[in-house]
Specification:
heterodimer, A: alpha/beta, four-stranded antiparallel sheet, 9 helices, 14 strands, globular, B: 532 residues, alpha/beta, three-stranded mixed sheet, 20 helices, 9 strands, 7% strand
Chain lengths: 292, 532
């Protein structure tokens, strides 16, 4: 796909509401995405996957608007234009197991309307090489490991050089080395495109994301940089020699000392908070608000 | 709460390729997968394997009647190639759901009805391969020196059309039902329907033509001039049915009603028109069948070979050398002059009118009348007492039946006509003369003997006369065949008059040739229909 124009905002969601029966999955979510990796954090059932599917044009919300690259992503021909620029890796991608890796990505490329055979095949080889599968491209998917299959799915998402990448927990099940490679790849990809990354891996968010959004119970609870999120726990992380029952979280570290998140006792030795600490603090604050 | 983060992002331009190009690219992709699918490969191997064996193995058929062969090819195409295509296309259509890849594929650009269009176009690949294979089969058969009949080009195209119809049915099923079990069950249903179509000949109706195969309306090979096969109209019918299935499949997957409904109406019109037109019988052909049944001479070509006149339907003349070979072999060990007068002749007959598709029988008066008509025809055509031969050739039993007809002519001095039972010495002599001709006639006699009960039926069921030899007499003739011909032949020559006399008993024959004879039957069961 040829890069031809630029815009400030890749995706804009405005007041998105989606209900499944009596359950409100998304409750007035608004956000804008630009270039770079945006991390989407939240507990299970927070609405992360639903939000990704709405932005990916798979689900039409009950209310609100979503636009991408200036096109209405919810209806009409704009939806198709968004899909032309979209790469989507779902949480649990299925595979045509009798296809080779090459055939699978080629098939997706055709459905993305890449019609010139030689150019398409070159593109398929490019994305397979990008995810490190060049050597096994003629192997059937059923013969590939779980990690390799995940990379096939990522290659399929990348084919056609999409300007918007939506990745739903792409590093689940990958070993540390593979995760590192994925991080490298995402970082490279995000240089000139918008990447929306839903994950439970806070290390990924910290190391990759320019922006992080925390979603909980269908609402955006936080938007900012990973450092900002970690900063929410500033002054609330401390260490001691024993477990503290009142802490939000408390665990014994490898050094034998205990690390606590919560309201510290006076004169407790404070530690630098991590993004995980910030996330825990945010969730606790929301729970406290809810109790009130 | 609102989250806002904005930064410049580069936007790629949308693909400029048209949907049609994408559909064609997908068509190519799916076509290759369909052809390489193990079910398709297995179906083609199963289809071609037995056919190649029938050409190259022992007992290979060197005398195919092309129109009959084409019907069997259509049946094979429907059972194997069509069934396989139905299942493979159905699996392809269901692929996204079966493998749960729809979360991604639903978001890809090419709309569902264009994808369905690609699946449907891809069916042309197995259909084209079927056409290619069937053409090759027909060409190979057509260059065999012993082939008979003429092939209608529409008949050759029907197997490919059947594959297209079943493939389109598979695509539509995939749109309607998500279970992959339904397609194989439907293929089985079509197979059963095919057999019903073939069997529908017994009903005397043409309804079987509404099924994908175009069955013959008589279960025997016919000369081309007597064929009532509306192949072109059947092909139009199949094209209409395929179009209906295609339009329904496209409509189901999202094609707009204002496009689909007129197309559906047009396809239905073609299917109904073609279907109705093919049900109409060809009265001229039916009339010709009646005429030819009683007098085939006007549509035959005669050749004189070595003093013997052979008359065959125009498209069966390639069999004359084979008949000549058997006749020569039968006559070889008969005494000189055994054929007597008139000169030997062979005429091909076909039971094209009144064939007992329900297994009925004729009374003695009818049989006698037919025999008389046969003699009159032969006489009028200048080949009196011509040995009859039917429209099947190539297997041992048929060769034995013809050899028996030749032997009958030598023994009786006239041609077999109507139903005839030969007893005593003449029965044994006939069996020996027919069996000694060559290994095929000998094998055919033993095959017919194993299938007979009460008397050895030396029948060619494509013609309406039958020659029988009482089992006890036939057993003596078969026992004579077990002895070296060099020992038997001089005795036959020396005792020809006694052996061809109705007064000579089978016990005398057994004694003469030193072969065993079975115990005399109860007088109550003695065959009273022996020809004198």
């Amino acid at each position: 796909m040829t890069l031809t124009s630029a815009t400030d905002v890749a995706v804009r969601a405005d007041g998105v509401v989606l209900r499944y029966g009596h359950t409100t999955a998304l409750d007035g979510v608004s956000l804008s995405l630009g270039a770079g990796v945006t991390g989407l954090l939240g507990p299970n059932g927070a609405g992360k996957t639903t939000l990704l599917r709405v932005i990916a044009t798979a689900v039409r919300p009950d209310a609100g608007d979503v636009s991408a690259f200036g096109h209405d992503a919810l209806r009409g021909p704009g939806r198709l234009e968004v899909r032309r620029r979209l790469g989507y890796l779902p949480q649990d991608p299925g595979f045509h197991r009798s296809f080779t890796a090459f055939e699978f990505v080629d098939y997706v490329a055709i459905l993305k309307e890449l019609t010139n055979r030689s150019a398409r095949h070159a593109e398929v080889r490019r994305v397979l090489a990008l995810v490190g599968l060049d050597a096994v491209r003629t192997k059937r998917i059923r013969a590939l490991s779980g990690g390799m299959r995940q990379r096939v799915a990522l290659a399929a998402a990348l084919v056609g050089d999409p300007a918007l990448l939506i990745l739903d927990e792409p590093t689940v099940g990958l070993d540390p080395e593979q995760r590192m490679r994925f991080r490298e790849l995402f970082a490279d990809l995000a240089e000139d495109r918008a990447v929306l990354l839903s994950t439970h891996q806070t290390e990924d968010v910290m190391s990759l994301c320019r922006t992080v959004v925390v979603l909980d119970q269908g609402r955006v609870r936080f938007t900012g940089t990973p450092t900002d999120l970690a900063g929410l726990a500033a002054g609330r992380v401390w260490t001691s020699d024993s477990r503290v029952p009142g802490a939000l979280a408390s665990w014994r570290t490898g050094s034998g000392a205990y690390r606590h998140v919560g309201d510290p006792p006076p004169s407790a030795p404070l530690l630098d908070p991590t993004i995980e600490d910030g996330y825990l603090t945010l969730v606790d604050l929301r729970a406290t608000e809810a109790q009130r | 709460m609102t989250a806002v983060m904005e930064a410049p992002v580069t936007v790629a331009a949308a693909s400029t390729a048209t949907r049609r190009q994408a559909m064609l690219a997908l068509t190519r992709f799916e076509a290759v997968r369909m052809l390489r699918h193990p079910i398709t490969v297995a179906a083609f191997l199963l289809y071609l394997g037995p056919w190649v064996w029938s050409l190259t193995g022992p007992g290979a058929d060197r005398y195919p009647v092309l129109p009959s062969v084409v019907v069997s090819l259509q049946m094979g195409a429907m059972l194997l190639l069509g069934g396989a295509t139905l299942v493979v296309v159905n699996l392809a259509v269901l692929r996204e759901r079966r493998h749960r890849t729809d979360a991604v594929s639903d978001l890809l650009v090419l709309p569902p009805h264009w994808r369905t269009g690609a699946f449907l176009l891809a069916i042309l690949a197995p259909a084209a391969l079927t056409l290619l294979v069937v053409c090759a089969q027909v060409v190979i058969l057509a260059v065999l020196p012993g082939r008979a009949g003429q092939v209608d080009v529409f008949d050759v195209a029907i197997p490919a059309a059947i594959v297209a119809v079943l493939g389109a049915a598979g695509a539509l099923l995939g749109q309607l039902v998500r279970s992959p079990i339904v397609a194989p069950l439907t293929a089985v249903l079509f197979a059963a329907a095919g057999f019903v179509a073939i069997a529908s000949v017994a009903t005397g109706t043409t309804w079987g033509r509404l099924l994908p195969v175009l069955p013959d309306d008589l279960p025997i090979p016919l000369p081309s001039v007597l064929l009532d096969r509306p192949s072109g109209r059947h092909l139009v019918y199949l094209a209409g049915v395929a179009a209906v299935l295609v339009v329904l499949g496209l409509f189901r997957s999202g094609t707009r009603a204002r496009v689909a409904l007129p197309a559906l109406a047009a396809a239905l019109a073609v299917a109904v028109a073609g279907g109705a037109a093919q049900l109409v019988r060809d009265d001229a052909v039916l009339a010709a069948r009646v005429t030819t049944n009683d007098n085939p001479a006007p549509v035959q070509t005669c050749e004189v070979r070595d003093g013997v006149t052979y008359c065959a339907f125009d498209d069966f003349t390639a069999w004359i050398p084979a008949w000549e070979g058997v006749l020569r072999d039968v006559v070889r060990l008969a005494p000189p002059g055994a054929a007597g007068s008139p000169p030997l002749a062979v005429r091909q007959w076909v039971w094209s009118d009144g064939f007992p598709v329900f297994g009925g029988t004729f009374g003695p008066e009818e049989t006698a009348a037919r025999a008389q008509a046969q003699r009159a025809t032969d006489k009028a055509a200048g080949t009196p007492e011509a040995i009859p031969v039917g429209t099947m050739w190539g297997d041992d039993a048929t060769a034995a039946a013809f050899a028996s007809g030749v032997a009958f002519r030598l023994v009786m001095g006239r041609a077999v006509a109507g139903d005839t039972t030969l007893c005593g010495a003449r029965g044994a002599l006939l069996v020996w003369l027919a069996g000694q001709a060559n290994s095929r006639t000998a094998a055919g006699l033993r095959q017919l003997d194993s299938q007979s009960s009460g008397s050895l039926a030396l029948m060619d069921f494509t013609i309406d006369n039958g020659l029988y030899v009482d089992d006890r007499d036939a057993a003596v003739g078969l026992a004579m065949l077990d002895r070296p011909a060099a020992e038997i032949a001089p005795l036959v020559t020396a005792h020809w008059s006694e052996l061809t006399s109705p007064q000579t008993s089978i016990e005398q024959v057994a004694s003469l040739f030193g072969v065993p004879v079975g115990p005399a039957p109860d007088p109550a069961f003695v065959n009273v229909g022996c020809v004198r």
